[in-house]
User: What shape does this take?
Amino acid sequence: MSRYLGPQFEQVETMHWRELEASGGFKARSRPLLVKGAVERWPASQNWTFDKLADLRRADGSEVVTSFQNGLVEQGVTREPVIQAVAPYLRQLAQAAANIRHTRIDDIGLLPNRRRTALAPGERFHLDWDYLKTFSAHEVYLAQWHILKEFPELRDDFAIAQLWPGLRRTWEYTFIGPANTVTGLHYDAPNNWFCQVAGVKEFLFFPPDQSAFLCRSRKYDWGATLSDINISQLDAQPEERAAFAKAQGLYARVEAGDAVFVPSKTWHAVVSLEPSISLAVFGLTPWEIAVGAVTIEAPGLLHKLRLYRWGNCTCHRMASHTTHPQATT
Ligand SMILES: O=C(O)CCC(=O)C(=O)O
Assistant: This one.
């Protein structure tokens, strides 16, 4: 059998934050943008280490306990989350991050850095999908932890307004986990400035005009739209992988200190190459909030009332109704 090539990619538009500032700053856009060094200049790059976050305690001195994602994020079966203390998990990641310095990070990934840096400007390429087959059992992932709700003072570590001027409501989630986490293909309704504080992640993007090839799922997820394509299980999905191969994507290698703009409704999947600390900053302008009341909150309310996609969602663990074998419990 010939090797599966999958979609064709180009590298995402990239600039250094100084270049962005010199050009008059960020302007609303519908294509992703990688901004090198944007987070590096903020206090987060010193204050948000695995060890320092492990020292966080609640106001009464008690341990922080929260819910961890069990299994792939936004993909396949939704499993019961694991509720556990944050500190021991973060200490283990600190150890893993210290050890990984000795491995050859430039040689691994869907697009190893050595191959990426040899590409000519605008050159198209395919990813190495076999790389995902090397992943063993998935560890739990501290995905979508609403850290700033618990510790609002940490907000000052991110000068997000420097990147994203204008009036908007933001809400933030951390994605903290080991190497080899996979967040499956999906899109979010709001725009997102994704801030990478530690570790390296690979981002695969597909603009909305590629939706025809991305097998939209019927599985409900508040504020997001999921795909039935499981990038970790492409061999088991002949129809989906054939459709996926027709898509044209954008690729970004997001390194510690970078920020990447993920526009509303842009499909994306994310793979970590190293233990990572990321903060996704989602934002809505007052107008977008008004529109979202209809497009996000109304289905959310109907879902809670069991009138919309009940029995097939990421928020309640129960039998999945998607048509794909890997998505049944
Ligand atoms: O970092 C990750 O694993 C996923 C991030 C993501 O999907 C998002 O910010 O929308």
User: Anything to note?
Assistant: DSSP finds nine helices and 16 strands in the chain. Residues 73, 175, 181, 183, 188, 192, 194, 201, 262, 268, 270, 278, 280 surround 2-oxoglutaric acid (CB under 6 Å). The two ends are 30 Å apart (CA to CA). The chain has one domain: 8-327.
